[in-house]
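Submission sheet (multi-component)
Chains listed below:
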Amino acid sequence: MNRPIRRVAVAMGVLLLALVLNLNFVQVVRGNSYRSNPANSRVLLDEYSRQRGAIVVQGVPVALSVKTTDRYKYLRKYPQGTLYGPITGYYSLFYGESGMEAAESNLLNGNDPRLFGTRFADLLTGRDPRGGSVVLTLNRAAQAEAFKQLVGRRGAVVALDPATGAILAAVSTPSYDPSALSSHNPDDIERAYRKLSDDPGMPLLNRALNQTYPPGSVFKVVVAATALQNGRTPATVLAAPDRLNLPQSTTSLENFGGESCGGGGKVSLDRALTISCNTAFAKLAMDLGTLAVRNEAALFGIDDQSRTVPLPVTASTMGPVVDQAALAQSAIGQRDVRVTPLQAAMISAGVANNGVLMQPYLVAQELAPNLSVLSRATPAQLNTVMDQESAIELKRMMQNVVTNGTGTAAQIPGIDVAGKTGTADTGVACPTDTAAPDFEDTKRACAPHAWFSGFAPVEKPRIAVAVVLENGGVTGGETTGGKAAAPVAAAVMKAYLDSIGIK
Amino acid sequence: MSALGLRGRRRGDAARNRRADAARNGGGPDPGTTGSDGRSDQAADERRPDSERSSDPRMPAGRGTELVLSLAAVVVVAAAEAIIEATRDGRVSGRIASYGTFALVLALVAHIAIRWRARYADPVLLPCVVLINGLGLVMIHRLDLGLKQSAAEGGPDRYSGPSAPTQVVWTALGLALFVGILLFLRDHRVLARYGYTLGLAGLVFLALPSVLPARISQVNGARIWIRVGGFSIQPGELSKIALTIFAAAYLVSKRDVLSAAGRTVLGLELPRGRDVGPLVLAWLICIGVLVRGHDLGTSLMFFGVFVVLLYVATERVSWLVIGLLLFAGGTYLAYQLFDTLRTRVDVWLHPFDTGDAGYQLSQSLFGLGTGGLFGTGLGGGRPETVPVVKSDFIVSAFGEELGLFGLVAILTVYGLLIFRGLSAALSARDAFSKLLATGLSFSLGLQTFIVMAGATRLLPETGLTMPFLSYGGSSLVANYVLLALLVRVSDAARRPRPVGPADATEDEPAEVAA
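Outcome: structure written.
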């Protein structure tokens, strides 16, 4: 009888071995996918049971965790919800994290390796582990003013400190209040998320960093910089025909409303920028060549795919530029040129800082739970976009735009302001048939985007700002972009300069 | 893996191993080829000189080893409790003393009973059980804490009071039965005489919940309970042992008939047609349990134990084949007939797409996956997320908090227990003891396999409990009875023979009965 008993023992061994192999499969091979399965509440509950660090702007928390009595222990709150929503992002049970909550998640939830010592100490002392906090570079006055200016409109404002690259304001409208998504009530969260994601105004989109627009005439600053770097001066006389026939193409290019740039088809580079002469810049770009313009644009950061601040930034691009005709259209910021509002601000910042473009950043400091500083932002140079002499010339040219050109609406009493307006065609053809069912909608969508990118004060720039108003211009008038966007930029710059005591 | 349990390290075992090796290397006639097969091993035993037997009265019986190992198990249990206290409360309270002390009392009482009345018993059996039962108790206590906290925080489940104290009471009851059996059942072979009585009792117990109205017998779709007052027992657990005893007794008396060869088909010697009756009867009973009680686990286990014992008694592989075919047919039939089973198979195949039905298994998998290699540490995970985690899914709680390593360690202890049981069967001196020990060990092993396979998605979940580990009084008490019988068999098997000529009557009481 012993032989079958031994066989039974062997069979038993095989069964136990099968269990062990299966455990290896479940716990090791599939372990990670089970752990990170969205339906697995364990990791989430653990994270929620720790006090998440705050996101701070000038000493005031704009995202913080407060104790609750429910099973998630802490509730994420956003005291000034819509004002900082696109920057803080949300922290949601079901929809994960976005914005700064996602970018700095490891620091905020306490998993950052740099917090190992703190965690260990918490373990020994029995204190509940906490996350570290993030101090943003934002300026409350500039942010609030920008938001106030954009309320009720679709658009974005980005303001930079040209000398450091610190982001002073980043506003995107329509905005949203992340508090609703960070609730602990599943139904509330879902309802709020559905409402936001179904909103045609796309409030969850951070237009400041993640939406690209054709820059229109703002791009002429890049072409002007290319020219100054290639032997031209502000006084260089450019051909400025009323109508420019494009080579290898049946189309022609003209100024807004078919206006003339004056001077009998000749205009100086300085004057061309001031009055935003399309034909002069198109011809200039064709003379400079695609490569020269593209190289200069790259120095300003266009076509850089990898930018994070640390929020991921959508890449701006000049497009393929297949021929001279495409180059001519690209030179005035149309065709396939697309930039983010941040990129538009960087163009002004590079000029303002005498040709030295600084790396933009949003995080000033990372703090441990005990408020000791883990890291402090060190301003870093991104590129030298032009030599100092040319930069000073370009600053003067941009100042002329505001003093007696298309950007007069950006003037601030007592402060020298420089900048460039833009009115960018959206590519949507304007309707002619007033009886068409979607006439009103199409008419709105065909209105050009209104741009302003500039800086102040001219002598020692403290702030560079870009404003875009979606469909904020009026078709056919170059000055309309300036009229709509320039006052917003002036208000933001004034608010910031006031707050730092420059009058 | 089998070597782990079957080869002892001590001198007494070594002597037996030599014999076993001798038997393997042609020391006796190949049992499979002779007509009187089953007895050949024993015949070989008989022929061996006494000097090879463990006849030295001073041979260490292993009681010291048992004590040391049991105390080590107690230390592990106390440490586990301390870790849980430290993790949950940030400090070690006095409760560590209570569970540690309870494990100590359990170990000492059982040890003294064995030392007193079964001094030659295998010294590894008790420490394994002390460790498993102690860890189970500590985990149930930890789950009490977790469930209470999650309920207080507004979690999905209501807290229905602690389970650990109840489990302590059941353990004490199991211990009392264990000691009682060792004291009053001096020779387990007398059980063979009551084979039919026990078989009938087992059947009645088994059938009882199916006959009783559903309101006192049905929990979660399976009618396997008797709920009286605040207590609920699963009579199936106790009938497991009664039916194993019956099967062993019955097969000892009938194995000559059952192993008679019939026709040979495809190289397989089939039993004679009329001898298939008992197997079919067992099959019908199991199907009955399945039909009335919707209890796949119990029916699978009974049938498995019966078929394996039939095979061990007759050494005819054909019984295994017939048994497997019947099992396959029965399961197919049940799958066609019952929604409960179809749902379970569905959940098994698609745990994440079956909504509420798959919630339990998917939570168990999440727990196991989150535990990974090393686990979250005792008290550091959230095993209370898994529904019914204290009984059917306690494996996933251990997997989450102790990780793959901890779970495999626990599985190894189970393996040790099972193989030591089978080792007792190997060295037992009479057919009844061999069959009894094999049946008990195999049922322990099969149950462990079925439950763990269900919780880890190797097989569909069946609704049994982990022996000694899970929360559940009937299971715990029944398994202590099982342990007592195993201890008794191994004591008899390792007991030195009286000096003098071999006493034939000691070896073959069952044979005489045949």
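Remark: Chain B has 20 helices and six strands.
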